[in-house]
Task: structure prediction
Amino acid sequence: MTMFQTIGAASDRVLETLKAGLEIEFGRGAGDALAQRFIDAEESDFLWDARTDERWLGTWESLDEKDFALDRIAIVGRLDGRWFVAVSIVDGDGNPHGLMSRRSFRSEAQARAAFAAVH
Result:
């Protein structure tokens, strides 16, 4: 039997699952400290995977990457129970390359209003 979950539902448990895995690997108490470091280091990827909606904002002009096309994408979603809106830099294959901005919200309604206003 195959079981499916929305990414939003699964993302609520990302930090909890990450902590549990780190505690198995590194011992009790290590999960809290290390999990946040993992998320901070890979924030762009975690947010991209936890998005529930996205909207193309335009191309991103990089001074360093002249032969590489990147786009600015507004995303909204929920990660570990907190709503966020972010602007991601994404390549044509849908891989995130970084963040331009990120804001957290207490409710979906606040996040959706901010998402609608991103330009």
